[in-house]
Amino acid sequence: MEILVQKERDAALGNGGLGRLAACFLDSMATLNLPAWGYGIRYQYGMFRQTLSEGFQREAPDYWLNFGNPWEIVRPNVTYPIKFYGHVSVHEVNGRSVFRWNAGEQVEAVAYDHPVPGWNTPNVINLRLWSAEPTREFDLESFNTGDYVSAILDKQRAETLSSVLYPDDRTYQGKELRLKQQHFLCSATLQDIIRRYKYGHSTFDAFPDKVALQLNDTHPTIGIPELMRLLMDENGLGWTQSWDITTKVYAFTNHTVLPEALEKWPVELMETLLPRHMQIIYDINWRFLQELRGTLGDDYQTMGKMSIIEEGENKSVRMAHLALVACHTVNGVAAIHSEIIKNEIFKDFYKIMPQKFQNKTNGVTQRRWLAWCNPGISKLLTEKLGTDAWIGELDLVSNLKPHATDPEFQAAWNEAKLQNKQRLAATIKQLTGAEVSTEAMFDIQVKRIHEYKRQLLNVLGAIDRYQRIKGMSPEERKAIVPRVVCIGGKAAPGYELAKRIIKLFNSVAEKVNNDPDVGDLLKLVFIPDYNVSLAEVIVPGADLSQHISTAGTEASGTSNMKFAMNGCLIIGTMDGANVEIAEEIGEENMFIFGAREEEVKTLRQNRMTATVDPRFTSAVNLIRNGYFGWADYFAPIVASVDGSHEGSDYYLLGTDFGAYLDAQQKVDETYQDKAKWTEMSILSAAGCGKFSSDRTIREYAEQIWKVTPCRRPDPLEKRPGLDSADQHVEDGI
Hints:
The protein is built from 30 helices and 21 strands. It is α/β, with parallel strands linked by helices.
C-alpha cells in the first residue's frame, strides 16, 4: 500500500508556502464546521518538476494528472463563459446607459470538485477548481464548416489557460497569460457564487450578509472590477449599490513585504485584454481620488503615490492599491509583517484608513503536519496527554512542559526521533545516492530558493565549517559534531541568481563529500523536487531547521511552525513568525541571531564601508578564486554579496555572518548535551499551540468574515416542519 501511495504525484496546485497555507486553511475550515469554499485553477502541469544535471537545476513538466485524479469529481454541468479582448459598447435601456462587453475571445470554465473532509465531524467542504475548455458552440461550428485546424487551435489556446502554474512573465506573452489566468479564476468563481446566491434570493440586498470573499494576496484582485461588472452589466444594478456590495464582501490578505512582489499590470495590456475592467478601474480610481482630495486637499504628491494608476511613460495598474481601496479589511500574516505593512509599505493608506488594518498570524494544520506525518511523536503525545483531543485543540500540547526533563519521556522522545531520522536517511539515499549517518545532526533548510531567504548564508557557513575541519588535527576533529546539511527548494525558471546558488551548493557538496579528511563530519545534500510528500518525511526527521531571512523580508513563513511543532530546533533571525515562535516557546529554546528589522535600513546604507567578519571574506574568496570550480559562473553571486558597490549585499549576509557562526557554535555545544537538547525539543513542540491554522481561521471567521460554525445535520435525523417530499428536496440542495 505504501508503495502504491508513493506512486501518486502531489497535486501541483500551488507554489511554496502560499499554496500550502491555503490547503491548511481548507482543512481548518472543514474541521471548524465553517460553511466555506475554496476556489482555484486545475493546473494541468503545475509549476515544474525539478531535476539536477551536473549540479544545475533542470525544469521538466510536472505531469501530475497523467493518470487522472481519483479524488476529484468533474461537474460538466457547472460551466461559465469567460471573456477576453474585444470592445465595450454603450446602449440606452429604460433611460439608463448599459455597457456591453463585446468579447473577441471566449472560453468555458468547467468545475472540478475536490472534497475536503473535516476532522472528527461529518462536515465536508469543497475545493472547486476550474479547467479551461473551448466554447462548445464555436468548436462545433468550426468542425461543421470543415475548418478542423482552426477548431484544434482554438481548443489548444483555451486549454493553455489552465495548463501551467506561474508562467514565466518576463515576456509580454507571459504577462498576458498570467493576467488571463487571474481573470479566468475570478470570473468563473464570481459567476458561480452569484448563481448559487440567486437560487434562493430575488434581490442582491442580502448578498453582503451571505457572502464573504477573501483575496489570498494580490493575484485575484481583478475580481474586484469583475464583481462590479457582473452586478452592473449582467444583473442591472447601479454603480452605488454595486460598489456598496463589493466593499462589504471583499477582504484582502497581503503575503509579502517585497515591493517587487506587489503586482502591477501595464494599462495597455489591461485595456487590450479586459477593456471593461479597465473602464471600471478608472472609475473606482477617479472616485477614490475625489475622496482623497477632500481629506488631503491639494497634496497631489501623496495622492499620486496612493492612486491605483501609476503614471509615467508606461502607465500601470497597482493591484494592491485597488485591493486597499475596495476591501473592508486588510491583514498581514505575522505581527512584525503587519507592522511593516502599516508603517512602511502602505503607510499612506494606514494614515487615512487605519480601521481597515489587522493582523492574522498564519498557522498550519496539526492534522497533516504532526498527527499524520509524525506517528511516533503523535503516539507519545496522546499517551502522555491521556487524549487525542490535541488533534483538534493544539493548545493542549502545552501540558507536555512539565515532562520536558523526565528522563523516561526524553528516552521515548529520542527513540521516536531516531526512527524519523532513519526514514529521512533512507529517502536521501533513494533520491540522491548519498549515505548519511543518523548519528549526525540533520540540519535542514527547505523553501523556495531566493536571495532574501539566504540559502547563500547557509552555503557560506558550510564553507567556513569545511575550512575549520580541514585545518584541524585528527585529534581535534574527534570533538566535532557530525552534521548533514540539507537544502531543498526550487528556483523560479527566470531567476538566474537563484539557479546559480543551487549550482554553487552542489559544487561545494561535491568538494566536501569527496574529501577524505572530512569523512562523515560534514555532508552536504541537495534534495531535488521538494514538495509536500517530501516535507512529510523531512520535517519529522530534522534536528535543526534554518529560517535565516534578513529581518523584515519574510512576511511570516509556515515551515518554521511545522518544524517547531515536530520538536525540531530553529536557528533563525527575528523575522516573520520567528518573532512569535520565540515569544511562545522562549527565545532560550531557539538559536536567534542577526540584525533586527529596525536596524536594517541603516546597515544597508553603511554596508560598503562596514567591516565584516574575516571568515566571511575568506569563504567568499574561496568561491571567487575557483576553489569549487566554475569561478566565472559564480562571479555574479560573489558580486551580489561582497559589498564592493552600491546595493551589493542588500540582504546583509556579510553583516550577519559572524553572529550566524556564533549561533551555529552554540548549536554544536547544545547538541552535545543530549538531555538539554531533548528538553528544548520537547518545549519547542509544547509551545506551538498558537500556530495551529485552527486558531488563525477562528480569527478570520470572527473578526473579518463574521461567519459562525454550521455543523451539517445528521442526514438520518428528520427535520421539523418538513414532509417527506420536502425533506428529499432539501437533502438534494
